[in-house]
């Protein structure tokens, strides 16, 4: 496991999982939010974004945190493992709200410079609709993916997996997304 994608709804804990997995494996972490957003929550130019993703994928090893459907196929083609944090939407919503309330107006280390924590109705709606609108495509992509797929449905499952004897080499059973 040298090229790992971490996918899931906002608020599922993708960035936290990436940091914890990096601590266990020594693999470098790439937060896609840092590449995608420009100061003031301005979206990156599409051509620049595509070039940045291609550059990241060319590296020999990484953990990439972020779902970003527009580059998912490309990222899965380069990955050898994908972790889906498949948590209930209410939990993702609560976590996202907690993150906003505790960090409102402050920068996060997994976010682009100049993009302080904020709250928007569109973001909350995105989280609420993620399971119905985004997850089916992710599940389809993961069914076609030839690498290892790890689906974690609870925080307890995630903790158990991260604390398993050998996260790097343990072959977990392939779970249908």
Automatic annotation (TrEMBL):
Residues 4-44 form the ATPase AAA-type core domain. InterPro entries: ATPase_AAA_core (IPR003959), Cytidylate_Kinase-2 (IPR052922), P-loop_NTPase (IPR027417). GO terms for molecular function: ATP binding; ATP hydrolysis activity. SUPFAM superfamilies: P-loop containing nucleoside triphosphate hydrolases. This is DNA topology modulation protein. It comes from Granulicella sibirica.
């Amino acid at each position: 496991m040298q090229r790992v994608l971490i996918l899931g709804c906002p608020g599922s804990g993708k960035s936290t999982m990436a940091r914890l997995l990096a601590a266990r494996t020594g693999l470098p972490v790439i937060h896609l939010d840092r590449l995608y957003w420009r100061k003031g929550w301005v979206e990156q130019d599409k051509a620049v974004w595509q070039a940045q993703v291609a550059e990241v994928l060319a590296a020999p090893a990484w953990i990439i945190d972020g779902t970003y459907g527009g580059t998912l196929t490309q990222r899965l083609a380069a990955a050898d493992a994908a972790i889906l944090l498949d948590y209930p939407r209410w939990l993702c919503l609560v976590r996202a709200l907690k993150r906003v309330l505790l960090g409102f107006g402050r920068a996060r280390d997994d976010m682009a410079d100049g993009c302080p924590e904020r709250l928007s109705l569109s973001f909350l709606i995105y989280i609420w609709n993620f399971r119905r609108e985004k997850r089916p495509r992710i599940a389809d992509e993961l069914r076609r993916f030839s690498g290892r797929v790890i689906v974690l449905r609870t925080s307890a499952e995630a903790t158990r997996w991260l604390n398993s004897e050998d996260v790097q080499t343990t072959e977990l059973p392939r779970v249908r997304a």
